[in-house]
Please model this.
Amino acid sequence: MSPMFVCLTLAVAGGQTPPPPEMKVKVMHGTIARISANTGLLVIKMGDEKNFKQESFQVDKITRYWGADGGMLGEGLRHAGFKVGAEVWFVVGTGGLGRTILEFRLVGPLPPPGNHLRD
Model:
């Protein structure tokens, strides 16, 4: 096969790359067990008092925060409402973003997954 044909084939194939699939997300609910606004690390307790588990999560610069009134919060984890014992609803990604909180709320329930991430 000639080098010219290979380059042309790659150029044509590259122009037909399908769009990436929509990100899949999981909507979760729990209570803050530990929080560090400095590092962005959280431990969330999920379940009832007898049957619960605690899982670690991380916020990132892509995380959006919502207050109890439903309004967006600019101060992130430094907001007074995000404290140990606070009930929270949150959205995490899947795969490499499975421990990253994409949306963090002091009010619930959340709208259907995907609709709120497009703003």
